[in-house]
């Protein structure tokens, strides 16, 4: 079989023409070069997968591993560790055994627990909207709602004291950096973040609470073995970063996408039962989904009818796959009523996002509250004036100015 990689190498992530538009290269890659060579921010080469079925297949195939610190694996960024995906946190959690870790932590992220959290999430959203209304219009939805709500939720779940949450934004940005920070800045932020969370875990061990960290400290696996202290700290760090950063970014993008063509907002106002499907659709439609999921291949494998050789680092672009016309009719159009909607925004298979029940609960709660409180909500600038934050693993908008 022939190698299916194309002839020209793109720089990755691929820039987009506007904040709410996908890179035009996605369509060409899916049609003509479904496993494309790309150059990462580190300068190393990887192979980019953009078709829906191929991305789903790679994420479910155990031959494509999380071993991004393997000799010969591409580094994402030009630092000693190579970036978020093979950072000390990732390596500590891998050493715990990924499935064991998921079983221990996943007990917290059940649909029943998330449903129990929803009233408190809605109450906090109401409070933040009150403060935004007091601020006056126009207001930045990122500053007033999209960022502070998920920070409050995940910190409350982990038992982080109210007055100790201000540093998380900086620590998260540095942790998620592709090109924004130097190696020295990344190392300093990681050290400060780890020191804070080590102190937090020590405090929880001395004075256990009914929060997630308190439960994990007391928990054991099927063999009666508790989670190591290093893994508890790494878990707290992973959940604080993933638990607020991606959801904060998605709240802002969700509102921007639904208001960019206000007929979508009007449709939801007329039929609030569409909130659940609308959330799934903005997750699918998101053109600014971030870096994607990297995997390392230890043996030759076939993708899209060709052989990808052992030693290749593969990047799965879920955002590109979610725009694949072969999987979604009218993939380039946002349809708040789309159902079924088997999108890949949370990944697929055994390694799909652990926190997706929480993310869905927060997104649905925020959208419900906004529709109830601010039916006249609209963008205070043109959608083409919105700007992305570049250089991070996650896809984020700088601001979403709104009026009502």
From TrEMBL:
Gene3D superfamilies: Cytochrome P450. Keywords: Heme, Iron, Metal-binding, Monooxygenase, Oxidoreductase. Its cofactor is heme. It comes from the Bacteria. Belongs to the cytochrome P450 family. This is Cytochrome P450. It comes from Streptomyces lonegramiae.
């Amino acid at each position: 079989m022939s190698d299916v990689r194309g002839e020209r190498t793109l720089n990755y992530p691929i820039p987009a023409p506007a904040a709410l538009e996908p890179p035009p290269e996605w369509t060409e890659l899916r049609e003509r070069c479904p496993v494309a060579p790309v150059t990462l921010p580190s300068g190393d080469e990887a192979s980019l997968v953009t078709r829906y079925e191929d991305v789903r297949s790679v994420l479910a195939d155990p031959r494509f591993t999380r071993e991004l610190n393997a000799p010969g694996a591409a580094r994402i960024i030009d630092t000693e560790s190579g970036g978020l995906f093979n950072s000390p946190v990732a390596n500590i959690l891998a050493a715990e055994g990924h499935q064991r870790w998921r079983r221990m932590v996943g007990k917290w992220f059940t649909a029943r627990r998330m449903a129990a959290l929803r009233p408190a999430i809605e109450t906090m959203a109401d409070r933040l909207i009150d403060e935004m209304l007091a601020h006056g219009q126009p207001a930045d939805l990122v500053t007033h709602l999209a960022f502070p709500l998920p920070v409050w939720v995940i910190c409350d779940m982990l038992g982080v004291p109210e007055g100790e949450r201000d540093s998380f934004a900086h620590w998260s940005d540095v942790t998620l950096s592709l090109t924004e920070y130097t190696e020295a800045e990344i190392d300093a932020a990681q050290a400060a973040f780890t020191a804070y969370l080590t102190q937090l875990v020590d405090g929880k061990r001395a004075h256990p609470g009914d929060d997630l960290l308190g439960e994990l400290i007391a928990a054991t696996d099927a063999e009666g073995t508790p989670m190591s202290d290093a893994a508890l700290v790494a878990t707290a760090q992973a959940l604080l970063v993933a638990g607020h950063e991606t959801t904060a970014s998605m709240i802002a993008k969700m509102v921007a996408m639904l208001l960019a063509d206000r007929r979508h907002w009007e449709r939801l106002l007329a039929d609030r039962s569409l909130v659940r499907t609308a959330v799934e659709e903005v997750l699918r439609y998101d053109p600014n989904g971030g870096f994607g999921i990297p995997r390392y291949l230890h043996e030759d494998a076939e993708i899209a009818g060709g052989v990808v050789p052992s030693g290749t680092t593969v990047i799965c672009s879920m955002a590109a796959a979610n725009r694949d016309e072969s999987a979604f009719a009218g993939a380039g159009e946002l349809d708040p009523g789309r159902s079924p909607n088997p999108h890949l925004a949370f990944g697929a298979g055994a390694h799909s996002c652990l926190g997706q029940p929480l993310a869905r609960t927060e997104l649905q709660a925020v959208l419900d509250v906004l529709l109830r409180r601010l039916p006249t909500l609209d963008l205070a600038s043109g959608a083409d004036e919105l700007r992305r934050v570049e250089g991070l693993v996650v896809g984020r908008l700088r601001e979403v100015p709104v009026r009502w």
